C-alpha cells in the first residue's frame, strides 16, 4: 500500500503554545525535533506493517519544519511553501490511505492551539457541515477516494475526527487543559502509542470509508472582523453575507473550494488594526 501522511505541529506531543511552533521563538527547535521524531514513529510502523511507499507532507506554517536529515530514510518528504494544495499537497487517488499527525481542533473549539488556518477565522463550513483543517483535508482525500484512517493529536482533534469519520483511529498524545496548556505523554510513550495505533489503522483500513465531499460545494468562512471579510471578498466570485463577517463562495468541486479557502485566508491576513 501507498500511504500519505500530513504532519501539522500544534497537535504534537508536549507542544502547548506559540513558543513551540513559531520559528522566531526559543522553543521552536525543540518543537521541530519532537515533530520529526513523532512522524518517524508513524513512518517506521507503516513500513513494518506492509506499506511499500510512504509520502510525508510537512503541513505547518511555512511547511519547512521537519528535519529531513533525521527522517526515516525510505520516506519521501514534500516540504516548503507555496503549495497549491497546502496541507494535502501531493495527495491523489494512488494512495490507499491517509494519516494526519500533529493535528488540532478547529477554530472556536476547545483544544491546544485550536484554530482554522489563520487566527482570524472563527468558523468554516462546507454547505452545512462545520469544518476545520482536519475536515477540509479529509474532504480533499475523499475526493480522490482515499480514507483518512488515523489522526494523532490532542483530545480535541480526536473528538472532531471521530464525529466526521466513523471508524477512524485516534491517537491522543495530550489532553487539553486550556488553549495553551495540556497534560501530555512523554515522547517515548507517545511513540509507543503512535506505533500501536498506526499498525491497527493500517490493518483495519477497510473499516473506514472516504469522507465524500458534496458536489458543487458552498464554502463559507466567518472572520473575526469586517476588515478581514473585506480583504477576502476581493477574490472574484465571493460575497459577504449581509450583516455578518461571513464570506461565501460557490465552488465547482472541493478542490476549487480548498484553493478558494487558501486565497481568502491569505488575503484576510493582510488586515491591519491601526
* SS element count, helices: 7
Number of strands: 12
Computed CA radius of gyration, to the nearest angstrom: 18 Å
CATH homologous superfamily classification of the largest domain: Dipeptide transport protein
Widest beta sheet: strand line-up = 3-2-1-4-7-8-9
Low-confidence stretches: none
Q: Whole-Å distance between the termini?
A: 53 Å
Largest sheet: 7 strands, mixed
| Helix-residue proportion | 25-40%
- Structural class from helices and strands? alpha/beta
Q: Could you tell me the strand content as a percent range?
A: 15-25%
At CATH level 2, the architecture of the largest domain is 3-Layer(aba) Sandwich
Might you state the CATH topology name of the largest domain? Rossmann fold
Dominant shape:
globular
Short structural summary:
The chain has 274 residues and is α/β, with parallel strands linked by helices. It has 7 helices and 12 strands. It has a 7-stranded mixed beta sheet, with helices on both faces. Strands 6-5-10-12-11 form a 5-stranded antiparallel beta sheet.
